[in-house]
Amino acid sequence: MNITLNRAGHLGLLLVFGAFVIWFAHNAWMASSTVINMLLIGPTALLAICLIGSIAVGLVIHPERDADHSEDDGDGSLRQRFGVPIGCAALALYVLSLGTIGYDIAGVLFCAATMLLMGRRNLLVIALYSLLVGFGPVWILQHPMGIPVYSLIVE
Amino acid sequence: MFDFPAVLDAFSSLFSMPMAWFLVPLGIFIGLIFGAIPGLSVPIAMAIFLPMTLYMDFLESILFLTAIFTGGGFGGSIPAILMNVPGTSAAIATCFDGYPMAKQGKHNRALGLALSASTLGTAFGYLMLFVILEPLSHVVLKLGPSELFLVAVVGLLLIGLMTEGRFWRAITAGSLGVLLALIGMSSAGTERGTFGSLYLLDGVDTNAAMIGLFAASELFLLVKSDYLVQDRESRSVSTREIISGFFAIGSNYRTLFRGSVLGAGLGVIPGLGSSIANLVSYSLTKRFSKDPDSFGKGNPDGVVAAESANSSSEGGSMVGLLALGIPSSAATAIMLSAFSMHNITGGPRFISDQKDVVYAIIAGNLIQAIILAVIGILFIRFIVYIVRVPLAFLLPPIVICTALGSYALTTSISGPVTLVVFSVLGVLMKRYGYSVVAMVIGLLLGLMMEGNLVRTWQLGGGSLSPIIERPISIAILVLIVLSLSGAFYSSWKRRQDRASSALTNEDPASRHG
Question: Membrane-crossing residues (chain A) (predicted)?
Answer without folding.
Answer: 12-29, 35-61, 82-103, 123-141
